[in-house]
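Worked example 3 (structure in, sequence out).
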């Protein structure tokens, strides 16, 4: 039998130890900030009941779900008539009761409803787990990828929105990003704009068009609006709103004037201003906050604030986003529970950090010390030292006896191990060991106690 060529399914990837170290640096940094703000980690199963997921993402989402075949003889219980249709959609519900999760939000909604009696509200949770989509793989788009979400449900306070801005600012700054913009908008402002020009029924057409302002420019937006049934008069009214300029306060003032006849629109302005007022009580590290009324992501989903985060240091799409939703759990029968959430685009953040060289030099260094020995006697002599170092939380490896010292030192270099201890006959007799800094090449003669002091105190 011919050997099978090893490969992974399209749209999935392996991560090397070096890549995992960098990914964990990102995840650990973000998780630490989530915890600082009172968010607790949960995990949900990789698979959910198909009934939990179906109909929550629209027709397109239903098609992109990875469905799992029932175990056993799954065809035996199917009506033979259905098999003759040769239509897989017809029999899917009979042969598949589960699917891999498509995102973290719907499973979170299911979790909240299922555990509502044991949850303390407001409930602040974060999740860092993989999700799966049967999408066509292409550069930057995978069938398996991680999502990094934080949500709070059971509180309508706009302090939550302000804290999301602080979380983005702190986490991205801690990762080394120096220049990024957190864009904010409000669904109510967009509704108010549509209402003001008498096009409330066309809000989706309006927002889909203006959301492309960055890509196709004003002329492109106008052309698209005209094609979607808007009149030249509508567009004249829209122009000053679409092209808002100035500070956030100036933009809000202009919007209040333009939306004077829309209670919904004015409510959106009031909510944005409340978020800004909260933020004014804090010191942001590196983020620029920008009111951007062309921001319309997830419009069918969000009911209040909408966020998007972009880095200004490299050409890259959004590296985060989220917003306020009023009835997340309604799909599972628990009505009226408002929530808000954000997500970090970990894969894009990885690419940004790689391009800017932001990963710390020791990000992929797990072992601090490699003990090298010439022979079996040296190996036995090294065992108590190995125990001592590990007892002091110093990550240590002992290279098994039998290899030339050069090979052992090459191993340390290839694994970015910063220090080595070499044990030969002199070291065993005197108890004074050869301690080498692999970066500088400096060697010292130190006792085991002195080595531990040096590594734990940095002296």
């Amino acid at each position: 039998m011919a050997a099978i060529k090893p490969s992974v399914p399209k749209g999935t990837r392996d991560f090397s130890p070096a890549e995992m170290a960098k990914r964990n640096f990102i995840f650990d940094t973000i998780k630490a900030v989530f915890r600082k703000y009172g968010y607790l980690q949960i995990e949900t199963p990789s698979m959910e009941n198909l009934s939990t997921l179906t109909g929550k993402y629209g027709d397109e989402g239903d098609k992109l779900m990875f469905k799992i075949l029932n175990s056993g003889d799954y065809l035996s219980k199917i009506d033979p008539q259905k098999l003759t249709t040769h239509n897989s959609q017809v029999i899917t519900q009979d042969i598949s009761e589960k699917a891999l999760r498509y995102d973290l939000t719907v499973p979170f909604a299911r979790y909240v409803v299922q555990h509502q009696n044991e949850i303390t509200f407001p409930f602040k949770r974060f999740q860092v787990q993989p999700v799966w989509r049967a999408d066509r793989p292409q550069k930057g788009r995978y069938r398996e990828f991680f999502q990094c979400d934080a949500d709070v449900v059971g509180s309508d306070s706009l302090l939550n929105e302000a804290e999301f801005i602080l979380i983005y600012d702190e986490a991205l700054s801690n990762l080394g990003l120096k220049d990024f913009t957190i864009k904010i908008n409000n669904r109510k402002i967009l509704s108010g704009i549509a209402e003001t020009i008498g096009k409330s029924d066309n809000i989706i057409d309006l927002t889909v068009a203006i959301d492309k302002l960055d890509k196709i420019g004003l002329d492109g937006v106008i052309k698209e609006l005209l094609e979607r049934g808007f009149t030249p008069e509508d567009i004249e009214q829209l122009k000053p709103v679409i092209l808002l300029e100035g500070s956030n306060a100036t933009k809000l003032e202009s919007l209040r004037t333009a939306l004077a006849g829309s209670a919904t629109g004015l409510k959106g302005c009031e909510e944005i201003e409340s978020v800004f007022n909260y933020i004014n009580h804090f010191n942001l590290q590196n983020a620029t906050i920008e009111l951007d009324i062309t921001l319309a992501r997830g419009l069918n989903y969000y009911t209040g604030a909408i966020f998007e985060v972009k880095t200004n240091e490299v050409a890259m799409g959004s590296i985060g986003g989220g917003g306020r939703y009023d009835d997340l759990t309604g799909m599972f029968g628990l009505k009226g529970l408002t929530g808000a959430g954000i997500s970090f685009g970990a894969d894009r953040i990885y690419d940004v950090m790689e391009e800017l060289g932001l990963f710390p030099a020791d990000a992929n260094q797990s072992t601090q010390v490699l003990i090298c020995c010439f022979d079996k006697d040296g190996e036995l002599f090294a065992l108590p030292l190995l125990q001592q170092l590990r007892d002091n939380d110093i990550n240590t490896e002992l290279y098994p006896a039998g290899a030339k010292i050069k090979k052992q030192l090459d191993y340390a270099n290839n694994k970015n191990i910063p220090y080595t201890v070499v044990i030969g006959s002199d070291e065993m007799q005197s108890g004074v060991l050869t301690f080498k800094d692999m970066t500088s090449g400096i060697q010292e003669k130190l006792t085991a106690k002195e080595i531990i002091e040096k590594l734990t105190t940095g002296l």
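Notes: The longest strand covers residues 123-132. The chain is about 40% helix and 20% strand.
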